[in-house]
Sequence to fold (186 residues):
Amino acid sequence: MVAAARAREAGFRLAALTIDYNQRHRIELDAARRVAQALGVERHIVLPLDLSQFGGSALTADIAVPKDGVGEGIPVTYVGVNALDYSGYPDCRPEFIAAFQHMASLATKQGVEGAPVQIATPLQYMSKAQIAAEAARLGLDAGMSWSCYDPTPEGLHCGLCDSCRLRAKGFIEAGLPDPTRYAVQP
Fold:
């Protein structure tokens, strides 16, 4: 949401891509639609990519979402691109983004013909507090966005997973009210 609003502010036309990775809940997809509409996205693609076929993720399989903080190794809740709040996710590392951009330059017509794809990750080095402050500066309703890995049946953020804890901490550190509806206050 913040990255798209910054791109819009810079004069770019917006297209949004949401991956329906067969997550256990649909709340994330609903939030993506609301955000895309609110930002005036010209085209919003929801791409089905059934990651449950690979197994091993608490976001797609019947595996408990950790609620006791960041542990050792790659977490079972693997997503993201924010290096400062990196919790062991390999694709949050700057090296991954650089390698992916290089691969896109080699593997696309555009890249081979001299106009390589440029991947921008404007939030990668921002803390959650800086992202929350940027959302406020841009006039965004951060309550529209979704972070929780394990929402309640009532559609609330659980308040206990790593993502909820990092989100709540970001608003506190930014000195901003948190518009998130939590089942348990982190």
Observations:
- The longest strand covers residues 15-20.
- Residues 94-107 form the longest helix (14 residues).
